[in-house]
């Protein structure tokens, strides 16, 4: 409760907003990379309290949202098999594949189970030695260590009926892809604090220097985000492009050495598809050769899956920061949390879900881009 109270103080928030206003002399576009930060910004109305010259652009940092359709369809194919127990975090069950989602597979008789840790799936595998147990391992660098540890434990304990369907993605290559897009308007970044708590900050200075953009590592409470914005604006106004850590209570510069060692052992870097964006070179992880036997894609031979994206969903443009959710004609009408067309309306970190949940339903496009 201490940090919840301290980092939501209205008086301190007002003071930070005044400092941002006093600093801002030009128009600036800043991207918050993480979907958790997006929800905090929309929930607390931070984007509406900022000076008119500052635009917050919502980035692709929602792990559910960027999981490619091909992987979702592979999950559906595996989960429908009669001898499989398919385990996943709950937010993946309603993510639409080409024709259905995991809830629909479950309603048809598939053994789909919600777990709260990948180690829960490993326990299920030990309790059901005659069945194949698959855990859906998605996410950024934040969730990857726990999934890596689970595979490590499965091999160490000799649990052969467990496998991992892997769709892990990495933040730094995504930032590079955003900056190299011809439509990019981003001038500064709020980097995700939880990712940096694992990986540290060493990967970011080369990006800041190459693309000449400030990057401020920050957290998720209102004051965290406002302080991150203040520092980013200060750098932009002064013509600087540096990496600053505004989240030192959670992010050491070196990250978590034990977690990074586990990741290096279990995973290897690979090209990875991002839903709505496409393939970004060397932007993801797959299981290394030493643990390849635990790769569900290879175990179940789901390498040739046809996918079919919605023709009216514009979630890919939302994920790239090219449009706001309300710029999509399907938003709030044909696409709602109960009947989503894209993952950005399903995920608890999706930008479309944030706009719908916090009633940003009729914001006109010209205001969204003001």
From TrEMBL:
Keywords: Iron, Metal-binding. InterPro entries: Hyd_form_HypD (IPR002780), HypD_1 (IPR042243), HypD_2_sf (IPR042244). The keyword Zinc-finger does not apply. The keyword Metal-binding applies. Pfam families: HypD. It comes from the Bacteria. PANTHER family: HYDROGENASE MATURATION FACTOR HYPD (PTHR30149:SF0), HYDROGENASE PROTEIN ASSEMBLY PROTEIN HYPD (PTHR30149). NCBIfam families: hypD. Belongs to the HypD family. This is Hydrogenase formation protein HypD. It comes from Nocardia jiangxiensis.
């Amino acid at each position: 409760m201490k940090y919840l109270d301290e980092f939501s103080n209205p008086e301190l928030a007002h003071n930070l907003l005044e400092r941002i206003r006093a600093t801002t002399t030009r128009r600036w576009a800043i991207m918050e990379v993480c979907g958790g930060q997006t929800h905090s910004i929309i929930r607390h109305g931070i984007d509406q309290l900022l000076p008119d010259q500052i635009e917050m652009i919502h980035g692709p940092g929602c792990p559910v949202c960027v999981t490619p359709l091909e992987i979702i369809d592979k999950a559906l194919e595996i989960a429908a098999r009669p001898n499989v127990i398919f385990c996943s975090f709950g937010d993946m069950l309603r993510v639409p594949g080409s024709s259905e989602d995991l809830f629909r597979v479950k309603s048809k008789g598939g053994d789909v189970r919600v777990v709260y840790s990948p180690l829960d799936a490993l326990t299920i595998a030990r309790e059901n030695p005659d069945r194949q147990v698959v855990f859906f391992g998605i996410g950024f660098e934040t969730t990857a260590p726990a999934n890596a540890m689970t595979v490590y434990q499965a091999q160490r304990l000799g649990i052969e009926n467990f496998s991992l369907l892997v769709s892990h993605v990495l933040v730094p290559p995504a930032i590079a892809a955003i900056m190299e897009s011809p439509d990019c308007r981003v001038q500064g970044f709020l980097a995700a604090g939880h990712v940096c708590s694992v990986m540290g900050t060493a990967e970011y200075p080369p990006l800041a220097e190459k693309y000449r953009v400030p990057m401020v590592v920050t957290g998720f409470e209102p004051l965290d985000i406002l302080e991150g914005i203040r520092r980013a604006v200060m750098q932009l106004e002064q013509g600087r492009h540096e990496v600053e850590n505004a989240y030192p209570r959670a992010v050491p510069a070196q990250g978590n050495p034990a977690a990074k060692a586990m990741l290096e052992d279990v995973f290897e870097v690979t090209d990875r598809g991002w839903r709505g964006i496409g393939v970004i070179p060397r932007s993801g992880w797959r299981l290394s050769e030493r643990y390849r036997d635990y790769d569900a894609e290879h175990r179940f031979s789901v390498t040739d899956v046809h996918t079919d994206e919605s023709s009216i969903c514009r979630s890919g443009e939302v994920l790239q920061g090219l449009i706001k959710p309300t710029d999509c004609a399907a938003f709030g009408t044909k696409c709602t949390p109960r009947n989503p067309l894209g993952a950005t309306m399903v995920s608890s970190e999706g930008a479309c879900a944030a706009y719908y949940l916090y009633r940003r339903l009729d914001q006109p496009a010209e205001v969204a881009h003001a």
